[in-house]
């Protein structure tokens, strides 16, 4: 760059000197000697001036780049001022290119660090969740092997408990697999026009026995319109199953769980309401995170994996929708989600 600054100064100085000599040669009173002196003076004067100006600009820009690189090294990216590109000055352009590149790389590094932290936390959570049922089953089996197996009554009780822990482990592994498959995109959504009311009534049928055992009234409100939505039957069945299962799990005996609908012009909203314990406000934004539970022991005692709502969130995201929740402690909760009405549904109303 310094070399080209010198060349440019030289060329410009020669040009200025030539113009000066040409101009003076037109004046008759100036002789040959005078022309040479004027040419040399104008050449050296303009060369020096142009060279100093160019060098000053070049050094100033180089210094700016150095300063920026120093800040980059110290990770003070936010302190760097971004300048608008002066298209004529290549150094300014380089400066800006380095800045954009550094900003991009820094963003990538931050993202990777976040992912790494998330991965570590997830592995720690999964290990902890797997450990709980494994340790419980292991404990029962060892107690049996240590002699309890000879007592028929204790043997049956402990074997049942070990089996329950292993069943819980199976559900947990299934949920983990579902979640990871949805996240990695291994499960492709199969969108089709489907009857949401029919889907919900099939889910409700499966929970009849469980709700009766807890003396919980399970109601499905028949909508006035036909509810044809455009969605994946199997995945939305999973969403409704998880929400109804939670509603029953977190509602005490004698309570009520209602599944209702609201039909809008473009969407159908499904509501799953319960008269259960409710969720304190500060937990509402976090319950859709993996393994987040308001009351850990209570969730485990009810066979919860802590993944139900995370699965709901991911499936609904795959449908371009999301779950909403409204809850009042001691009164109950309402979870809802929207699905688009299938085209041509209006005619069937
Ligand atoms: P879990 O397997 O623990 O039920 P979920 O992801 O389904 O996991 O739910 C996360 C947490 O949200 C639960 O542990 C519970 O604290 C809370 N929760 C979910 N649904 C309800 C509900 N209907 N009523 C009260 N609390 C709920």
CATH topology of the largest domain: Heat Shock Protein 90
Arithmetic mean pLDDT: 87
From the N-terminal CA to the C-terminal CA, the straight-line distance is 76 Å
Sheet with most strands: 5 strands, mixed
Supply the CATH superfamily name of the largest domain.
Histidine kinase-like ATPase, C-terminal domain
Commentary on this structure:
The protein is α+β, with helices and mostly antiparallel strands. The chain folds into three domains: 5-105, no CATH class; 114-184, Orthogonal Bundle (Helix Hairpins); 192-340, Heat Shock Protein 90 (2-Layer Sandwich), CATH 3.30.565.10. Helices cover 59% and strands 13% of the residues. It has eight helices and seven strands, in the order ααααβαββαββααββ. The protein has a five-stranded mixed β-sheet with strand order 2-4-5-7-6. β4 and β5 (267-274) form a beta hairpin. α3 runs antiparallel to α4, α5 runs parallel beside α6 (233-249) and α6 (233-249) packs antiparallel against α8. The longest helix has 56 residues, at 90-145. It is elongated and about 130 Å long. The termini are far apart. The model has no long low-confidence stretch (mean pLDDT 87). The structure holds adenosine-5'-diphosphate. Adenosine-5'-diphosphate binds next to α6 and α8.
Describe the structure using short key phrases.
binds adenosine-5'-diphosphate, alpha+beta, 59% helix, 3 domains, two-stranded antiparallel ribbon, Helix Hairpins, five-stranded mixed sheet, 8 helices, 7 strands, 349 residues, single chain, Heat Shock Protein 90, 13% strand
């Amino acid at each position: 760059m310094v070399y080209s600054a010198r060349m440019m100064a030289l060329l410009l100085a020669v040009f200025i000197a030539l113009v000066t000599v040409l101009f003076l040669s037109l004046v008759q009173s100036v002789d040959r000697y005078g022309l040479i002196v004027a040419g040399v003076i104008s050449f050296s004067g303009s060369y020096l001036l142009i060279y100093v100006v160019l060098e000053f600009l070049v050094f100033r820009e180089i210094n700016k780049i150095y300063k920026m690189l120093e800040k980059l090294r110290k990770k003070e990216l936010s302190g760097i001022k971004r300048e608008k590109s002066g298209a004529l000055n290549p150094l300014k352009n380089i400066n800006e290119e380095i800045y954009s590149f550094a900003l991009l790389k820094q963003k990538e590094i931050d993202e990777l660090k976040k992912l790494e932290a998330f991965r570590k936390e997830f592995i720690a959570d999964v290990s902890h969740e797997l450990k709980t049922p494994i340790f419980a089953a292991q404990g029962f089996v060892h107690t049996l092997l240590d002699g309890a197996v000879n007592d028929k009554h204790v043997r049956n009780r402990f074997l049942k408990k070990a089996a329950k822990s292993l069943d819980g482990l199976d559900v947990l592994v299934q949920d983990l697999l579902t979640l990871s498959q949805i996240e990695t995109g291994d499960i492709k959504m199969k969108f089709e026009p489907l009857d949401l009311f029919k889907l919900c009534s099939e889910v409700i049928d499966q929970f009849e026995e469980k709700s009766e055992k807890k003396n919980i009234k399970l109601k499905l409100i028949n909508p006035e319109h036909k509810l044809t939505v455009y969605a994946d039957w199997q995945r939305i069945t999973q969403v409704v199953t998880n929400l109804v299962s939670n509603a029953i799990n977190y509602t005490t005996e004698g309570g009520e769980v209602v599944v209702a609908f609201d039909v809008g012009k473009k969407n159908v909203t499904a509501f799953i309401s319960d008269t259960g314990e409710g969720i304190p406000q500060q937990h509402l934004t976090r319950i859709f995170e993996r393994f987040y539970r308001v009351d850990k022991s209570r969730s485990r005692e009810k066979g919860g994996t802590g993944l139900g709502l995370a699965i709901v969130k991911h499936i609904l995201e795959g449908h371009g929708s999301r779950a909403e929740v409204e809850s009042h402690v001691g009164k109950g909760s309402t979870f809802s989600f929207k699905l688009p009405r299938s085209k041509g549904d209006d005619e069937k109303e």
